[in-house]
Design a protein that fits this description.
With 698 residues, the chain is of the alpha+beta class. The chain has 32 helices and eleven strands. Helices cover 57% and strands 9% of the residues. It is globular. Residues 618-674 form the HAT C-terminal dimerisation domain.
Length: 698
């Protein structure tokens, strides 16, 4: 404490006391020889002395915080010396509560909406003092009881709208939200999902999301911290994650899963973050983000197949040319509107709410999941307006891009382009439902693997029986847009670079399109799926699949489940494995005979049903295995959504926002459903106890 400035010590003490004692439950405590016996700390003592007992992992010491019990008076403002010397009337306390509540109400609104708090100039003579003060003023004008005690009517030393006050309120809101998350986690296990992204001010931010099963049996993924990291080495990231967990009084020994993207510093087998955590906690199993792996299959096909690579380059060039000019964008919108009106007159489209909306030309990206599919769908639907815009560009002799426009027009009005466009739309249309499902917060890994197998079967079915329907669609499209259709019995022209187009190959057009393109791309897609998704063959995933309740637990296999349990040595020793074996025999017969467990779909429904029927009390070991299965991460989609929220909040106009305030605003904005459940009283008391305040609540 002596290292802090005298003016800061009270605030530091309060911050330390507000965190509460550090109690790493379920931590593997080291043994010490005492009087000939091996003794260790018992985490059951935390439940008996939860208000003051703490344990230091670093020092391996039990801290009997009797001083904390005595310091509780420090947190109670009404017992402080300052309060005793500065007694306030009941009216003054009521006015202070009204004033503070008004500021909290305004802050909550801005946090939920992700809006900025203050303006560039908040001086008294400024006409634009920022959204916070503007809404506070509006609130006072509409509510006389509030307006009489805020802003100009507030005491000069207790105005409750300064920048520091606004930051403290936001911090109190954030910490109460995180406390609500910790309440959901309880004493249970969790998985860590993390990733890094650069913000608008070129700072590297790491989002830390915890995946867990709440007390009602639902799978949850919650943001607990957004940290500015100055180094992205695996060791630095691990230290940051452990530091965040320590602040939340969560022991790293409770980690039962890790989910990262494909970066080597994250998933490296030797010195990656996954390996560093696994060395200390072998039960923290790593699962590579499924959504990221699925996107990598497309990238591999695009880079590995020459036809697809050239096709994607032409698609991106088309979108860049049309989207690179506001004039061409406007012309595209006009052409699109005309096509929709014409289709409505011809009865080709239906009218209704939400139908026939304007379609943008979204650029595809190798790092944005599902973007290629949306691009291809829009190209098929809006092909005619695109051709019209390019045709107008090609005939505009005053434009510098007319030659390029003509080249693109010649490229997309070919059978080759149309064939690849429809083929890639078909292939990605099969995997797109899987991509969308993988991005759900409550998705479990068994269901994800089931969806993956379904996609593989659909790809194989398309390879076997999808040629004729595809050709029919392409023919219809070509006839509609006046694109020449080659004779499939003619010999295909040589398409190698440097070869004359007049030269022909020894294969027919049908052989080329069917074997060299259709079969080749589908085979490559299926091969990439098989090579990248290798988790199916592990004992962990085989055991998880056997817990599935689908088809009256038809996949149940006791031996595989027991092998899976052995992968969690901290949770299932040999004695627990024996108990689990006997429990599984009774469990499967009991649940198969119970009508309440019929027609269940997935591990998530099984988990909630066991809680609802209290079966988890009868089968604790099976229920623990079920929770371990559910908290295994499927994808880092939630982390990516955090970065979307971060970029929405910290934008070009708010590029100087501090790291702590960014963390507070992103947490409350992203976890808005939980934040809205936090009461104002909790926020008021948290705010009041953060520092010594002039105003008194009680």
């Amino acid at each position: 404490m002596s290292q802090y400035h005298l003016d800061e010590r009270d605030e530091v003490r309060r911050a330390y006391l507000q965190k509460g004692p550090f109690q790493p439950r379920n931590h593997t405590f080291p043994q010490t020889s005492m009087y000939g016996n091996m003794r260790r700390f018992n985490d059951a003592w935390f439940g008996e002395y939860n208000n003051w007992l703490e344990y230091s992992i670093k020092e391996d010491l039990m801290m009997q915080k009797q001083c904390v019990k005595r310091c509780e008076d420090l947190m109670m403002q009404k017992q402080s010396i300052q309060t005793a010397l500065d007694k306030q009337s009941e009216q003054a306390k009521a006015d202070y509560r009204t004033r503070l509540t008004a500021s909290v109400d305004v802050a909550r609104l801005l946090l939920v909406e992700g809006l900025p708090f203050w303006g560039h100039d908040e001086s008294e003579h400024s006409k634009r003092k920022g959204i916070f003060r503007s809404i506070l003023k509006f609130h006072g004008e509409k509510n006389e009881s509030v307006g009489s005690v805020i802003l100009k009517n507030a005491p000069g030393n207790c105005i409750m709208y300064s920048l520091d006050i606004q930051k403290d309120i936001a911090n109190a809101c954030s910490r109460e939200t995180v406390d609500a998350i910790l309440e959901e986690i309880g004493d249970g296990y969790f998985s860590v999902l993390a990733d890094e992204s650069r913000d608008v001010s070129c700072k590297q931010q790491m989002a830390i999301v915890l995946r867990f099963v709440d007390k009602m049996g639902f799978v949850m993924e919650r943001l607990v911290s957004l940290v500015h990291v100055t180094s992205t080495t695996a060791l630095s990231l691990k230290e940051e994650i452990y530091s965040v967990l320590a602040k939340l009084s969560l022991s790293p020994s409770r980690i039962r899963g890790q989910g990262y993207d494909g970066a080597s510093n994250m998933r490296g087998h030797i010195n990656g973050l996954r390996s560093l955590i696994l060395q200390e906690n072998p039960s923290a199993h790593y699962v590579h983000c499924f959504a990221h792996q699925l996107q990598l299959t497309l990238v591999a096909v695009a880079n590995g197949h020459p036809h697809i690579k050239g096709f994607l380059e032409l698609v991106n060039l088309t979108l860049n040319v049309i989207g690179g000019s506001y004039k061409r964008r406007d012309e595209y919108r006009i052409r699109q509107s005309e096509k929709v009106e014409e289709a409505l007159r011809m009865g080709e489209l239906l009218t209704g709410k939400g139908l026939n909306q304007e379609l943008g030309l979204q650029r595809s990206s190798n790092t944005r999941w599902g973007s290629h599919f949306k691009t291809f769908v829009n190209l098929v639907v809006m092909f005619a307006p695109i051709v019209d815009v390019l045709d107008a560009l090609a005939t505009d002799t005053e434009s510098d891009d007319n030659v390029r426009g003509q080249a693109i027009l010649d490229g997309i009005q070919t059978y080759d382009f149309v064939f690849l466009l429809h083929l890639m739309k078909l292939v990605l249309g099969i995997t797109n439902p899987l991509s969308q499902a993988l991005q759900r917060r409550d998705q479990d890994i068994v269901n994800a693997l089931s969806l993956l197998n379904t996609s593989k079967k659909q790809l194989q079915r398309t390879r076997d029986h999808g040629w004729d329907p595809l050709i029919d669609d392409i023919k219809s499209f070509c006839l509609k847009h006046d694109i020449e259709i080659p004779n499939m019995d003619d010999f295909a022209p040589l398409r190698a670079r440097g070869k004359s187009k007049q030269r022909v190959s020894s294969v027919t057009n049908e052989h080329y399109y069917r074997v060299d393109v259709f079969y080749s791309i589908l085979d490559m897609q299926m091969q990439e799926l098989n090579s990248r998704f290798t988790e199916e063959s592990t004992d962990l995933l085989l055991g998880l699949a056997c817990l599935s309740p689908d088809d009256s637990f038809s996949s149940f296999d006791k031996d595989k489940i027991l092998r899976m349990a052995r992968l969690y040595p901290h949770d299932f020793d040999e004695l627990a494995i024996e108990d689990l074996g006997f429990e599984l025999d009774i469990y499967i017969d009991n649940l198969r005979d119970d009508e309440r467990f019929s027609n269940l779909n997935g591990l998530g429904e099984l988990s909630t049903r066991m809680i609802k029927t209290k079966k988890y009390l009868s089968f604790p070991h099976v229920h623990l295995l079920l929770k371990l299965a559910l908290i295994l991460p499927v994808s880092t989609a939630t982390v990516e959504r955090v970065f979307s929220s971060m970029k929405y909040i910290k934008n070009n106009l708010r590029n100087r926002i501090s790291d702590e305030f960014l963390n507070d605003t992103v947490i409350t904005y992203f976890e808005d459903d939980l934040f809205e459940s936090v009461s104002n009283d909790d926020i008021l008391h948290r705010f009041q106890n953060m520092k010594s305040r002039r105003g008194q609540l009680d």
